[in-house]
């Protein structure tokens, strides 16, 4: 039987919104949304939180997560998260043995659903890709409103469409990484340097479940969307 472990990577330092991982969102720490969703997903056997911060560790334990002590050099704002993934895989395998599926559920996207997690896991399990991740439709589109800027200040579309495009709706659809769910294998993490070294599948999720909290305005948007979910229709 396949074994999937979920991981939340939450460091203490945050320049955009200090303390955001334990900041109360609609009555509970932001971190709790990721841990609770991962624990509720079918097939997830354990949930780990990798952190360098005591307050984050305490909040994670309160909702049943196990703590991975992240080394300080992997918790800076310049450290590649891929290295934290490798550290977490090694830490878990040393204590619990081999496992089949690595699932990253970032704390900063609290509006993801259990179904989003399960769909990403299912896509990876189909076996024809190395990585499965959530994607969401993007308003910024390289065929319509994303541009390159030259040294003289002139701009041009990043990607020229095959024909005339007068409206965004006429351009080829563009997606962005939702940042809410990633699934791969421990072996892929060990043997590669980034997601794009392998074959990657995108599982579409709606934009309202892909809000990524980096600054206060993102936090406020997430609060408003959560309040709307909890307000019964007239």
Oligomer: single chain
Mean pLDDT level? 91
What composes the largest sheet?
A: 7 strands, mixed
Could you say which structural class the secondary elements and strand pairing correspond to?
Answer: alpha/beta
| Element-level helix/strand string | EEEHEHEHEHEEEEHEH
Strand order of the largest sheet: 5-4-1-6-10-7-11
Q: Helical residue percent? A: 25-40%
Q: Unreliable runs, pLDDT <50, ≥5 residues?
A: none
Q: What's the β-strand tally?
A: 11
Q: How far apart are the termini?
A: 46 Å
Write the topology of this structure.
Elements: E1 4-9, E2 24-25, E3 28-29, H1 30-40, E4 44-51, H2 54-62, E5 66-69, H3 81-96, E6 101-104, H4 114-125, E7 131-137, E8 147-149, E9 155-157, E10 175-184, H5 186-191, E11 200-204, H6 216-230
Parallel strand pairs: 1-4, 1-6, 4-5, 7-11
Antiparallel strand pairs: 2-3, 6-10, 7-10, 8-9
């Amino acid at each position: 039987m396949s074994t999937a472990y979920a991981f939340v990577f939450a460091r203490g330092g945050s320049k955009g919104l200090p303390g955001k991982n334990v900041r109360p969102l609609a009555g509970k720490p932001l971190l709790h949304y990721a841990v609770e969703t991962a624990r509720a997903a079918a097939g997830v056997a354990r949930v780990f939180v990798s952190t360098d911060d005591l307050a984050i560790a305490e909040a994670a334990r309160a909702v049943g997560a196990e703590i991975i002590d992240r080394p300080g050099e992997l918790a800076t704002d310049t450290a590649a998260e891929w290295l934290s993934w490798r550290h977490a895989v090694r830490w878990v395998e040393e204590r619990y043995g081999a496992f089949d599926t690595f699932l990253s559920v970032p704390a900063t996207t609290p509006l993801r659903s259990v179904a989003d997690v399960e769909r990403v896991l299912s896509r990876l399990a189909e076996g024809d890709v190395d990585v499965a991740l959530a994607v969401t439709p993007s308003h910024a589109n390289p065929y319509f409103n994303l541009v390159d800027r030259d040294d003289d200040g002139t701009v041009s579309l990043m990607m020229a469409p095959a024909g005339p495009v007068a409206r965004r709706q006429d351009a080829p659809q563009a997606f962005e990484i939702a940042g809410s769910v990633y699934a791969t294998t421990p072996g892929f993490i060990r043997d590669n340097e980034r997601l794009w070294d392998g074959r990657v599948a995108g599982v579409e999720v709606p934009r309202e479940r892909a809000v990524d909290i980096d600054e206060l305005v993102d936090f406020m948007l997430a609060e408003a969307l959560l309040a709307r979910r909890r307000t019964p229709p007239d």
